[in-house]
Amino acid sequence: MHPQTRTMLWLNLLGGAAVLGSYAYGLARHPEGGEALWGGVRPQLRPLYTAGMVLAALGYLGFTTFLLVHLDPADARVGRRFRFPLFDWLYVGILIPSALWMPLTWGMIEQPSAALWWGIRAILAAVGLAALGMVVALGMGWPKAPRWAHRLALVGSIVFLLHTGVLDALVWPAVFG
Questions:
Q1: In the predicted structure, residue 2 carries a pLDDT above the cut 80
Q2: CB contact at 8 A, 40 and 176
Q3: What is residue 7's predicted lDDT score, i.e. its pLDDT?
Q4: Residue 141 parent element (H or E)
Q5: The whole model's pTM is what?
Q6: List of residues 6+ apart from 16 with CB closer than 8 A
Q7: Spatial separation of the C-alpha atoms in residues 83 and 71, rounded to whole Å
Q8: What confidence category does residue 31 fall into, taking pLDDT thresholds of 50, 70 and 90?
Q9: Is there a contact between 131 and 164 (Cβ–Cβ < 8 Å)?
Q10: Average pLDDT, stretch 167-176?
Q11: Helix, strand or coil, per DSSP, at residue 80
Q12: Could you give the CA distance from residue 76 to residue 24 in angstroms, rounded to a whole number?
């Protein structure tokens, strides 16, 4: 395995564990309060969110699989300027803020403050921007072979962006309060 592929794999394993761990810890600590995380999201919209979460997770797995399995870091380029490590930075921009969302949101529910609210909005925006960066990097990157895997990765990244950049970063904060 190429060393840069190994780095990306470890980044996803550790970062993914941090995200899932923060969710598990937050829900275990507040077993009765999961409803509070929805904020003002109407019950009619919750199935859209739930489907979006599942599709976003599948999209994430799709583009991550492409990067780990189908893209050789030695050959990978994004535009004329960037190489494979750009994807690692995009994962950092997705995973670290995602791991912070649950604890910060519980903090906001328990002791609301303007600073905490802006922090939550900033981390949601960071994930959305990193997701947008992933779409652009995959779209501009080469090589794109195998084509089917690249197309699947691009579609997955777009679905992930729609959830994180629209539903999470724009809709949820607008209706949370």
A1: yes
A2: yes
A3: 98
A4: strand 141-142
A5: 0.95
A6: 95
A7: 11
A8: confident
A9: yes
A10: 93
A11: coil
A12: 35
Helices (H) and strands (E) in the chain, counts: 6, 3
d(CA 95, CA 76): 22
Residue partners of 78: CB distance under 8 A and separation at least 6: 86, 137, 140, 141
Residue with tokens 């195998």: 146
| Bridge-based pairing state of the strands 77-78 and 82-83 | antiparallel
Contact 107, 123 (CB under 8 A): no
Residues 97-155: tens digit of each pLDDT: 999 999 999 999 999 999 999 999 999 999 999 999 999 999 999 888 899 999 999 99
Residue 143's φ and ψ, nearest 5 degrees, are -75, 160
Contacts within 8 Å (CB) and 24+ apart, 145-150: 145/70, 146/70, 149/65, 149/66, 149/69, 149/70, 150/66, 150/70
Quick one: pLDDT band at residue 34, thresholds 50, 70, 90? confident
Separation between Cα atoms, residue 150 and residue 62, nearest integer Å: 9
Beta bridge partners of 82: 78
Cβ(157)–Cβ(131) under 8 Å?
yes
Cα–Cα distance measured from residue 4 to residue 16, given in angstroms and rounded to the nearest whole number: 18
Q: Are 3 and 83 in contact (CB under 8 A)?
A: no
